[in-house]
Every structure is written in C-alpha cells, then in structure tokens.
Give the backbone structure.
Amino acid sequence: MKTYLPKVNLNERKWHVVDANGKVLGRLAAQVANLLRGKNKAVFTPHLDTGDFVVVINAEKVRVTGKKETQKQYMTYSGWRGGEKRRTVAEIRARHPEKLIEHAVKGMVPKNRLGRALMTKLKVYRGPQHPHAAQKPEPCAVEA
C-alpha cells in the first residue's frame, strides 16, 4: 500500500474571512491555525502546506477572558543589557491589535520553516475592511 501524497497546487487554495468581533483570542487562534495548516481537509499531510489563506478582520475587538487584559504580559528582549520590555494586552491592543492574533496563531503552528511559510498566509486587519476582495474570500464561521 503506497502512501497518498497530495499535489500541492497554489490554485486549490481558498481564502477565508474570519471576523474576530467578540471572539475569545485563544479559541479563535486555534481555529485559524487549523485553517492555515489544512486540518479541515481530507488531504491533510503534516509535513506539507495544504492549508488555505485566512483574513482576520476586527482584530481590535477580540476578547480575552479573566484579568488578562491588565495582567497578561508579552516580553521582548533586544539582546542588550537592560533591553527587556514588557507590555500588557491593553497596551498592545492600543498600538498594534493585529499582533495579539498573530502572536497567538504563531504559537499554534509548527516551529520550523513550514510554520514560517504558513504564517505568510495569515492576514490580520484591525478594522472591518481588507484589501483582498479580488481573491473572493468566503466568510468562515468560527465558534465563540
């Protein structure tokens, strides 16, 4: 019995629009990561990129539960002494709300060159408009 390997053609990729308005960040990120990897398809292969493009709109309206808005911190380090910065969810939401979703999804894809390729297919926008109307994206229902 031979193992079936799908032909990965760029023509077969769909575009999905996900509205983040009122959705919980972690649950939204898990479902977006599954769409990016192609886990919803019958031809899913773990080591191949069989997923679709995902456009996330209304990123500033994503919801976090509990006290995460003020207590959860994201840390960055420049590599220099004293170069550690910590920002709360509220601070990131005020400046770059897209980074909240990108960071959460990035943690749910593989940590290798496949994961980096998958992240190029994620497009996140803070408002309800996006410039991908020419690709005819179809709305995707994501559970709250």
Notes: The chain has a mean pLDDT of 94. Residues 24 and 52 are 22 Å apart (CA to CA). The chain is about 30% helix and 15% strand. The longest strand covers residues 15-19.
